[in-house]
Amino acid sequence: MIGTLAALAAAGAAASCRWNWWRPRVTGGMPALMYHKIGLPPSGSKLAKLWVSPTRFRRQLEYLRKNGYTAITFAEWRDAEAGRKPLPEKPVLITFDDGYRNNYELAYPVLREFGMKACIFLVYETMDHHNAWHDPAGEPWIPMLTWAQIREMQDSGLVELGSHTMKHRSLPSLPPDQVRWEVTESKKRLEDKLGREMTGFAYPYGAGAYVPAVRAAALEAGYRFDFSIKQGISTLPWNREAEAVKRLFIRGDDAMLDFHLNLTRGRARL
Ligand SMILES: [Zn+2]
Fold first, then answer.
1. Mean of the per-residue pLDDT values for the chain?
2. 231 Cβ partners below 8 Å, 6+ apart?
3. CATH number of the domain that residue 100 is part of
4. How much is the pTM?
5. How many folded domains does the chain comprise?
6. Residue 51 belongs to what domain range?
7. How far is the CA of 97 from the centre of ligand 1 (A)?
8. 166 CA → ligand 1 middle, Å
9. What's the pLDDT at 1?
10. What does the pLDDT read at residue 136?
C-alpha cells in the first residue's frame, strides 16, 4: 500500500514537471490555436514539431466539439466587438500560419466534416510556389496553396484569410519602410486578389509583436486583429492597446492532455 502511494506520488511529481495541470483554469478568454503544417514531417525536417498528423488534428477537433467550443472567424469577432452579434459561449480561433498546400489537402476536409471555421495567414509572394524563406537544409521546400484552393476555401465560408506579410522576413530586422511595405502591400494585394477586407495579421516568427514601432506599423496598416506567438489565452474583451492576441502553439508531439491543458490553462508544458 505504502509502496503504491509512493509510486503514485512519484508519478504525480513527474507529471507536475511535464504538464501544467496544477495551473488555475482560464475561463472566458479567446483561445487561438496556432497550427502550421498538417501531415507527417518529411525526413530531414528540423521543425518536426510544426507538423501535426491528420489523425491528431481530427482528434483535436473532436475534443472541441465534445467540449462545446465554437470555432469563429475574425468577421464574427468583429461583429461581437461592434455589438452586432454576441460571441458563442465558448469561442475558439483555429489559425494556420504560412498557407501550406497541406492545409487544403489534409486540414480543410476535416474542417468541412466538422463544420468548423478556421483562418489561414498567407505569405503573399509564396502562394502558388513554395516556402522559399526556409533553408531547405533544415526544412524541405513544400508546395504552398494555389490561388484556386484559397478561393475555394474562402467561398465555402469555412476559411477566412489573413496576412502573414509578403516574404516572411523577420520584421524587427528590416528598415521602417520595408516593414511598412510588408504589412501594407500584403494587405492590399490580398484584398485585390480575394475581394475581402483583411482584418487579421500574424507576425512571421512572432517577431515584432512586442516591438512598438513594428506593432504600430501593423495596426496603422489597418488590421483589426494582430497575432503573436506568445503562449497563452487573451482575455475578452481583448485589450487591443495592450498587446497582440496570444496563441496556443499546437505541437506535432502533443498528447490530448497537452491540448486540454492548453485550452483550459493557457499552457501545457513548463
Ligand atoms: Zn510563419
1. 93
2. 246, 247, 248, 249, 266, 267
3. 3.20.20.370
4. 0.92
5. 1
6. 26-265
7. 5
8. 11
9. 47
10. 87
Residue 150 grid coordinates: 484559397
Nearest residue to 47 (alpha-carbon basis) of 244, 249, 203, 209: 249
**Spatial separation of the C-alpha atoms in residues 253 and 61, rounded to whole Å:** 16
CA distance 41 to 63: 23
Task: For residue 21, tell me if it sits in a domain.
Answer: no
Cα(124) to ligand 1 centroid in Å equals 12
CA of 121 to the centre of ligand 1 (A): 8
CA of 11 from ligand 1 middle (Å) equals 37
Buried b (16+ CB within 10 A) or exposed e, 90-123: ebbbbbbbbbbbbbbebbbebbeeeebbbbbbbb
In a domain, 260, yes or no: yes
Cα 98 to averaged position of ligand 1 atoms, centre (Å): 5
Which whole number is the average pLDDT over 137-157?
95
Cα 181 to averaged position of ligand 1 atoms, centre (Å): 17
Q: Is 13 part of a structural domain of the chain?
A: no
85: its cell numbers: 452579434
Q: How far is the CA of 205 from the centre of ligand 1 (A)?
A: 6
State in Å: Cα 201 to ligand 1 middle: 11
What distance in angstroms lies between residue 152's CA and the mean position of ligand 1's atoms?
22
Tell whether 2 is covered by a domain.
no
Interval between CA 83 and ligand 1 midpoint (Å): 32
